[in-house]
Amino acid sequence: MKITICGSIALTPNIIEILKELQKTENEVLIPSTSEKIHKGEISLDGIKKDKTSGDIVERVIREDLIREHYKKIKSSEAILVANFDKNNIKNYIGGNTLMEMGFAHVLNKKIYLFNDIPEMIYTEEIRAMQPIILYKDLKKIK
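Above: the chain's sequence. Below: its structure in token form.
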């Protein structure tokens, strides 16, 4: 199965960990371009965090057309896997970009997997309405 991992760039270490586990299987796995560049050492996570704090990240997202790029990965996949870990004092965090990516997958009739349970956030009901399959950290449940 071809799977695209979605999640906050701040959670890149978790995304890479999931990538490595899924690469041990017969699945083809795609990750966000920024996470890929961090993994390859082309850019640093600290640099991305600084750009986010300063607001410079928006220019980078526009310049590299990152939203559309990740949409194309989702479109070419059979499923997405949301790497939802604790962030900003929110258990199993799903941010705005990831919510959009889940919406893309839902509209494209792709399976939506969540690594952890659905978070309690202002858009919890929207997440539930997309009927994600919760893995409870067990990647073997991906089918």
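The domain at 6-141 is CATH 3.40.50 (Rossmann fold).
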